[in-house]
Model the fold of this input.
Amino acid sequence: MHVEDITRSVRAHHKWFSESLPLIASENITSPAVRQLLASDFGHRYAEGKVGHRYYQGVKYIDEVEQYAIDLALKLFRAEHVNVQPISGVNANIAAFFALSSQNDVLMALDTSHGGHLSHGTKSGPGIRHLRIVKHPFDYEEMNIDTDAMVSTIYEKKPKIVLFGASLFLFPHPVKEAYDAARDVGATIVYDAAHVLGLIAGEQFQDPLNEGVDVMTGSTHKTFPGPQHGIIFTTRALADAIDDAVFPGTVSNHHLHHVAGLAVTLVEMLEFGKAYAQQTIKNAKTLGAALHDHGFNVLCPEKEFTESHQIVLDVGRASAMAVALEKANIIANKNLLPWDDHNAPENPSGIRFGTQELTRLGMKESEMRVVAGLVARVLNGKAPEKVKKDVVEFKNNYQEVEYCFSHELGAYQFPAW
Done:
């Protein structure tokens, strides 16, 4: 094994994705400016503590950049307080659980079989915190939380935390409807915005902080098109508890090059976020409608399939279908659906698509219809290798990131490190 072997694999990956249709709902690509910041000297440094109160010297410019990120995030999300130090969405969730609960408290969350994220379950943050989990009631037809049953469950189980947000996330969650019940039983409302943070920033999904959420966590690399990192918004009343749970509670150094990249992405979203979020959702609805027209069982046609970046197909043998799509350079993931055998998650019936990355590459409704045709050919049994040729030719026209200030690095150019 040599360095050349490693770089050869990375180059091969770059080439593969330059010729592929990336439709994983939890991924995105950053702008050229952000990519360069991720390779900066910030990635070599430590800055434990808060801005202006560090445990290390040599951080005066790091402090400036982190304060920029804080100020920009507060402006973009119209929030009272933000912490930009979590290194992932899961880290943000764990910090929130530790800040807002004690051992054996009840957490009300969406079950993973209903779309909840792994970090909402016993093997992740809630288990680490030794929380008892009560499941949100779920409406299979609506593919959303059952609002009336949710309110009744809050009064019955009296959770310490009512958690919203999901990994399979088609429609806004009933935050407003939970507010009175949560307050009556003394519950804190937390919203995991990891998947939809960019849509919230673009004012196209729901506004959790304005609907009564106490804490909103998120990752910054899904619909929000920044570096892989985390973020937490909260009220002034909870600010100290959240900050302490992040540092020193769950984070030491917080990946400073990613904070720099996050700051630039926040600027880009202030400028382009609304148009990008609008197009992402238009693309998802169009892709869903086109695949439905091809005869596939796209969930929730009566609701225009989605109000987010995601659509979901029930295809029966999803594992085999996802592999076939990959062979055609169409990158998507199999996904457990509520009616699947929850004891066999490796054999689900769902395929999940996300349109945020193709949107960043400049694709719009007409391109979604082309994508749907390519997907349909594979799912209908066409040899993936034959479809792949058409995927590569089609994707060749979409190689530059849009919804950012420039395709050239220009003023962002740094000297060699």
Observations:
- Residues 256-293 form the longest helix (38 residues).
- The CA atoms of residues 63 and 142 lie 46 Å apart.
- The mean pLDDT is 95.
